Amino acid sequence: MRGVSARPLTAPRPSVTAYGPMAPPVHVRDLHVTLGGARILHGVDLDVRDGEMVALLGANGSGKSTLVKALLSIVPVSSGSVELFGADVTRDPREVPWRRVGYVPQRVGAASGTPATALEVVSSGLLDNRRLRPPRGWRDLALSALDEVGLADRAKETVSVFSGGQQQRVLIARALVRRPDLLVLDEPLAGIDRDSQEALAATLTGLRERGTSMVVVLHETGSLTEMLQRAVVLRHGRVVHDGKPPRATADHAHPHHDHLHPHEDEPPDPHSPELRLELS
After folding, report:
1. In whole angstroms, what separates CA 172 from the centre of its chain?
2. What is the 3-state secondary structure (H, E, C) of 102-140?
3. Are 88 and 82 in contact (CB under 8 A)?
4. Domain ranges of the chain
5. What is the tens place of the pLDDT at every residue in 212-251?
6. pLDDT average, residue stretch 108-125
7. In a designed cystine with 146, which of 91, 152, 242, 246 is the match (CB 3.0 to 4.6 A)?
8. CA-to-CA distance for 67 and 73, rounded, in angstroms?
9. pTM of the model
10. Cα 151 to Cα 169: distance, rounded to the nearest angstrom
11. Do 185 and 215 contact (CB within 8 A), yes or no?
12. pLDDT for the residue numbered 272
């Protein structure tokens, strides 16, 4: 999956940060989120350890993406606490070491109708509200990120001609160009074919082996099943399972299958038939 030779990305992992020794990448306690008058998350707890890959699973509307956006201070938190590397997101997002965090949103409008090249899209990941132009050496950094996802040889091509899976890999490269210690991906397998899923799995496997912590929102585990270390299953905004990754049954193979929706008044039992999950 390698293209042109480029300086390899590294992810230095300091043992001590400004926020305390060995602070975990993610620490969430009693998180509540209300949007538009509707309670979306109800008392969610979540921990992600250094170098761990955690899947957030659940049916549409279970609160997976809202949880991710609360982690990243994209949506407001009603109550509870969210810490990234020991810094309290809910108290003062400006104190969070955001350069240690990479975010890959759902692949909607990856090309955005703009004739941008893959190199340009990836280099945009180096910009922030304090930097209006890429830093020195940006081209090498962007090429290294594209090489990481196997697309360095297509750096000068327009993203709009890429397949859905290739566009997703460009978005991952845009997040990787920051050399993050924590990578958050929202539905990276959605709408891409099996070959593209396997290519993404290979990329994420390399990141996991390098020690990058990852939170991955998934509707079903698909090609990532074997590499997941832990799964957190959400149902109606509550955690109903936190532990060994579930293995989907044949009844839950279709991406639009909604049997992850148990009844609201039932106790949160991750082994219930409605979940259609085989915890094996």
Report:
1. 9
2. EEECCCCCCCCCCCCEHHHHHHHHHCECCECCCCCCHHH
3. yes
4. 40-108+180-278
5. 999 999 988 888 988 899 999 999 999 999 999 876 544 3
6. 76
7. 152
8. 10
9. 0.77
10. 8
11. yes
12. 36
